[in-house]
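thoughts on these C-alpha cells:
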Amino acid sequence: MEDRIRFFNLVKQIQKEGRRQCDKDMKGQEAWLTKAQLDLLIYIKEHADKEVHAKDLEEYFNLSNPTIAGILSRLEQKQMILRKKSKEGSRYKAITITPIGEAILRDMQKIGDQFGAQALKGIEPTELKKVLDTLEKVLKNIQEREEKNVKDTKTNG
C-alpha cells in the first residue's frame, strides 16, 4: 500500500480505536461521558481563565452549532457545566465547569493516563517527539491548503 494512504489510514484507525476504547472504559464509570463530552469538558476547564462560548467550541473542534449545543445540553443535564449570561451580551452564554465536572475530570484523568501508558508502551520519548513533529507538519500543510483554497475561491469567485 502506498505510504501516503497507509499514513492516513493509520491515523484514522488510531483515532477511531482510541475513541471506541475510551468510550468503553468510561461507560463503566458512575458518571459516564462520551469522548466528545469529555473533550469539551477538558477544553472548558483549560480555558477557565476566560469566558468560553459555544462559538469557541465550534471553531476549536470544527463541529456544527447543533452538535455543540447537543453536547453542552447533555453536560448541563449531568450538572457538569453551567451556562450563564455573558459579559459580551445577551446573545452569548458563558460556559463554566462545575465542581461535579471537575471531580469527573479527575476520575477520567486516571483512565486517560492508563490508556495513554498502554497506547505508548515501548515508544521512546525521542520517537514520540518525531511522530508529534511530523503530525504537526501534516496539520500545518492541510491548514495551508485550506487557506489557499479560500484565497483562490475569493479571487476566482
In short: The radius of gyration is 19 Å. The CA atoms of residues 82 and 96 lie 5 Å apart. The chain has two domains: 3-121, 124-157.
